[in-house]
Amino acid sequence: MKSVTLLIRPFNKLKIMKKLLSFFLMLTVSLCAWAQPAKNDVILKLNGEELTGKVLKINDAEVEFSYAGETLVYNIKKSDILKITYSSGRIEVYNKPALPSESKSQPAPGNTPASGPGLGDHHNKVAILPFSFIRDGQAADEAISEQVQNETFSFMSKHAGIFEVLNPRTTNALLIKGGVNKESIKGFTMDDICNILGVEYVVEGTVTMNKTTQTTYQSNSGSSTRKEDDKDDKQKKTYNNYSYGTATQNYSTNLNLNIYNDKGTTVYTQDRTSFWNTQDAYKNTLEYLLKRSPLYTK
User: Fold this and answer.
1) How far, in Å, CA of 266 to CA of 5, rounded?
2) In total, how many domains does the chain have?
3) CA geometry: angle at 35 spanning 31 and 37, to 5°?
4) Which of 32, 121, 149, 250 is the right S-S partner for 277, CB 3.0 to 4.6 Å?
């Protein structure tokens, strides 16, 4: 009997060790899964608004949604949603910006407006108007307005996707031919502008910059006296030090961005104040708003 007992004990120890190993493995996996932050679904609306939380249910016309950390349920219309990026990484596109040029009838031969191409040629074309630039309550010169226009074109053309973005030089030439300038543009609707430029979408914006405070950097130093020995006698010499100061002007910058289609409908409008206080702070704000527009493609 003793020999049998000695054989059984090692077997039981091995069995117990296997169970313990399995237990610790499961515990480790559970802790890792628990430690990872929960990912959220993100709804991107056509107006650029982002909703972060959980998609609970999808109906024929609406999406039931709850914000992260909340239990209140909201109903979001599908017609207002551009896309949903689920926590799994899957992207589902629900509603592209309206393409009104597809539903518009073609103009009869000979009736195409002389100021621009026919409406059938507008599809997926985008033009950027010179930006309004207001500095300390005064309108800046055209050079600055066109500079922001060119910066917008440079960024959008890199992320155009299916869209064709007109070169600003072409846009400005067509505006001049159509009789549109800074003073007369108020007399044109956005569908008029689209037709003159032969595009489906028009981008316009306003940069408002105002001086705020000044940041001063100063380095002060006084005079000092020390004795110096020479061959004959001791002398005192006084050395004068100087004070240096520099001042940096700070600015508050706000950017308003709008996109219209060739029906004159606003498809995107956003307003944002720049985080930075430098003169070129509008550049980061401009890219931030363009990335959230329905015309942006990664």
Assistant:
1) 86
2) 2
3) 150
4) 250
| Position 148, amino acid | V
Cα distance between residue 186 and residue 17, in whole Å: 83
What is the rounded CA–CA span in Å between residue 149 and residue 157?
12
Question: CA 286, CA 298: separation in Å to the nearest integer?
Answer: 16
Whether 277 and 166 map to the same domain: the answer is: yes
Taking Cα atoms as reference points, which of 43, 114, 137 lies closest to residue 81? 43
Q: Which domain does 279 fall in, by range? A: 100-211+247-291
**Structure tokens that stand for 234 in this block:** 């001791």
Residue 87 CA neighbour count, 13 Å, CB half = 12
Q: What is the pTM of this model?
A: 0.55
Q: State the pairing for strand pair 41-45/81-85.
A: antiparallel
Question: Which strand (E) or helix (H) includes residue 46?
Answer: none
- Provide CB contacts within 8 A for 164, sequence distance 6+: 124, 125, 126
**pLDDT tens-digit map of 240-282:** 566 666 788 899 999 999 999 998 899 999 999 999 899 899 9
Q: Examine residue 4 and state whether it is found in any structural domain, yes or no.
A: no
